[in-house]
Design brief:
Blueprint lengths: L4 E3 L4 E4 L5 E3 L15 H12 L8 H10 L5 H9 L2 H10 L4 H15 L8
Antiparallel strand pairs: 1-2, 2-3
Helix pairs in contact: 1-3
Length: 121
């Protein structure tokens, strides 16, 4: 696999294979932040959240449910309970959902379900 990096004006280097971003601030904690959703990761995410349900959502449907705060939808429950936080954030970023919105919906889901959610504020 060929890997090239391009300097982006705001200080981020974006790998052209779209696997992850690397912050160029010299802080070892920020060396590799997986915040780009790859096709394989999104497929695995959708397989996981749709597994228990007869009605399947595509990525757009799941994103719309998250944006609208439809916490009663089973796939939203699976998203918050079965998917790791970094993958949740990457999916949200890929689909135009801010971290604040994602955290708010996680809090609403937590209050509604009574289940502890890592992203809930």
């Amino acid at each position: 696999m060929n890997r090239r990096e391009v300097e982006i004006p705001d200080g981020w280097a974006l790998t052209l294979n779209r696997q992850m971003h690397r912050k160029l601030d010299g802080n070892p904690r920020n060396s590799y932040i997986p915040d780009v959703m790859t096709h394989d990761t999104q497929t695995a995410l959708l397989t996981t959240v749709n597994a228990p349900y007869q009605n399947q959502l595509d990525a757009g449907g799941l994103a719309a449910a998250l944006k609208s705060g439809n916490v009663a939808l089973g796939q939203v429950s699976s998203f918050f309970m079965e998917i790791d936080v970094e993958t949740q954030k990457a999916f949200a970023l890929e689909h135009g959902i801010s971290n604040d919105t994602l955290a708010h919906v996680a809090s609403v889901f937590q209050d509604w379900s009574g289940q502890s959610v890592a992203l809930a504020t």
